[in-house]
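Need residues for this backbone.
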């Protein structure tokens, strides 16, 4: 392998382009040498076409989110609250849980058996609030989105 020394600058220096707005050694606009030198006005941006506002409002989505959140919290806290109450009574009130209630059945067993109807109640509450509050909002937003999509497709 041979080593051929090459000159440190193999190419001739660049000549400035007179049609280019900035000299080659300055990356941005030239600095003003004299304060009375007029500044070049900035080019006007191209006008942007703004799309028409969508029919669906963001507040509708916010209302739907809050209704859905309220629905989940109420139904979830109903079931988990009763189960937590059962666990707390089991841990801190064993005499109450072992006391006899009806026909010799312990109170803890009756409370454990009541967990199933409470869970059904939470599910029924969830479905009721869904049908009454959340589903109409979702249907309204869906209809507005379909109208908006048809309007965009007609362009």
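Answer:
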């Amino acid at each position: 392998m041979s080593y051929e020394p090459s000159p440190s600058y193999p190419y001739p220096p660049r000549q400035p382009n007179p049609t280019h707005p900035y000299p080659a050694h300055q990356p941005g606009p030239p600095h003003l040498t004299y304060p009375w030198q007029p500044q070049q006005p900035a080019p006007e941006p191209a006008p942007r076409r703004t799309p028409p506002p969508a029919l669906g409002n963001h507040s509708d989505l916010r209302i739907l989110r809050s209704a859905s959140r309220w629905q989940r919290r109420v139904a979830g806290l109903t079931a988990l609250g009763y189960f937590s109450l059962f666990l707390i009574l089991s841990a801190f009130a064993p005499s109450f849980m072992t006391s006899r209630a009806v026909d010799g059945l312990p109170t803890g067993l009756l409370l454990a058996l009541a967990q199933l109807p409470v869970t059904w109640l939470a599910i029924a509450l969830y479905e009721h609030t869904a049908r009454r509050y959340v589903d109409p909002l979702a249907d309204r937003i869906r209809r507005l989105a379909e109208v908006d999509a048809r309007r965009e497709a007609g362009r």
